[in-house]
Structure formats: C-alpha cells, structure tokens
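To whoever is on call:

I kicked off a structure prediction for a single chain this morning and the downstream step that reads the tokens threw a length-mismatch warning. I double-checked the sequence; it's 138 residues and nothing unusual in it as far as I can see. Pasting both halves so you can look.
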Amino acid sequence: MKPSMEAPVVLFDGVCNLCSASVQFIIDRDPNSVFRFASLQSEAGRRVLAEIGHTLPEGDPESVLLVENGQLYERSDAALRIAKKLQSPLRFTALLLALPHVLRDPAYKFIARNRYRWFGKATECRLPTPQLRARFLD
C-alpha cells in the first residue's frame, strides 16, 4: 500500500516487543481504522520519512513516530497525538499536550531507553494477520 498523507502513519520499532504491543493496543482501540502502520526498519517506513524530508537516525530507534499531515511527531508528542484519536477515555490524555516537553519527555525517554531490557527484542519484525495487513504499509 502506498502511504497516504491523508491517513496518519505510526512508525514503530519492529523488533521491540513493547512497540509491537503498542501497535496492537492502538489497533484494538481504533475502530475506524484511522491509523496506518510501518516498521521503522522497513522500506515503507523509510519511504514515509523520506516523503517528509527526514531520515531515520543511526542505531536503535528510540521513539514511536507519528506522521500526520506532513508533520513528524516524536516521543510524547507522538504518543499523545495518537491517544487523542483513540476511543475514550484514552483521548483525554491528549490534554497533557498542554504541558511543556521538559515535563513530558523524560518519562518517555526513560522507558524507551530500557524497553529492550524490560520487554525484550524480537529477531525480526512480526507480520500482521491477513485481516490487519491492509493497515500496514508495503
């Protein structure tokens, strides 16, 4: 599937167990199928970033990214903007966007830094089920 700048795209670390669980969490709470998904390690993920003039930094990705309306959102900005589009009561967590990054991002960075140790790392990206395949970019 070719990325559509009309649909928000969640870019995630495809070998991170926490990130993969987060994608499943989003899918389960996104009944209108608002989001599309791509692994940061995939060609589709790199293509989405290139279309908005960004590249993936070297090393392990430290953040779930959200690309929406041609804008790139990282860390707590991405997480809270994603939550804003999910079923209630999750959407109310978006009120935290009113807080400055200096208050929001340290907790996000701490979890991101320790996610492999706490949740593990897969040797390869997990493939979506056939029914969810249409929500993932090729």
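Update from on-call: the warning came from a stale cache, not from the record. Cleared it. Sanity check on the structure: The first helix runs from residue 17 to 28.
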